[in-house]
Amino acid sequence: MLKSILFLFWTTMLGGVVLGLLTWGIGRTVFSDFVSMDVAVSGASEIGMIILATLTMCLISVVGYVGYLMTNYYMIGILRSRKGAWSGLQLFFIALAIANLFFLRYTEFAEGRESLGMYLGIPALIIAAGLIVSQIKVSLTNSHARIPTLFFIIVVTSLEMLPAFSISDLSSLLYVAIVLLGCNAWQILIFHKLTNNNRAGAKAPANAPVKSPPKRPSAKKA
């Protein structure tokens, strides 16, 4: 199990850094004024800042996933006699998170008759990511994984992004959202494969001796 946890941790960190650098590079190519984390730096200092910021976001993502696993485990145990209660609570929190994704930025930065459309981009991205990742998860496992996956991608990602909502620059907020969504999607899509491998290994150790089938007794001659 320890190897699986370390594999999940390091692949999330490495994949997050690669995704962060790609997002930053594309942002710089498409938008000349693309600046991450609201800090106007350039050259090697900017690349170093991007890597450090991305590593921080990856670590937040890993901690968020561990917290989600613990919460899910305990809630299933507490509400074992009410199978639909935890799913209903997750749907409630999903709806609440979607509403807060919009209103947090709108109430913080909206001025005068400013259009609401510009504040719908990040919520739409997170919702779309949740729908896509949950569909992939269902295809890899079963239909019971849809609501937990939606909950993790939408609710947990929203909680992880709370400090970033103080950023006024939309491109920087988009950068944070893409990195967190990528890390979260990777973790929830790969974790069941790691746990299944561990269970299979526990049931059939690699060094276990192979038992030969019992020999049938030979028929006695008359």
Description:
- The chain contains six helices and no strands.
- By secondary structure, the protein is mostly helical.
- Helix 1 (2-30) crosses helix 2 and helix 2 crosses helix 5 (146-160).
- The longest helix has 35 residues, at 44-78.
- It is globular.
What order do the helices and strands come in, and which of them pair?
Blueprint: H1 2-30, H2 44-78, H3 83-109, H4 121-140, H5 146-160, H6 170-203
- Main beta-sheet strand count, sense and barrel state: none
- Structural class assignment: mainly alpha
Mean pLDDT: 82
Tell how many strands the DSSP assignment holds.
Answer: 0
Please give the share of residues in helix.
over 70%
Please work out how many helical segments DSSP would assign.
6
- Which geometry do the CA atoms define? globular
C-alpha Rg, in Å? Answer: 23 Å
Name the beta content range.
Answer: under 5%
* Total discrete domains: 1
Order of helices and strands: HHHHHH
Low-confidence stretches: 204-210
Distance, first to last CA: 59 Å
Summarize the entry for a quick read:
By secondary structure, the chain is an all-alpha fold.
List keywords for this structure.
single chain, 222 residues, mainly alpha, 72% helix, globular
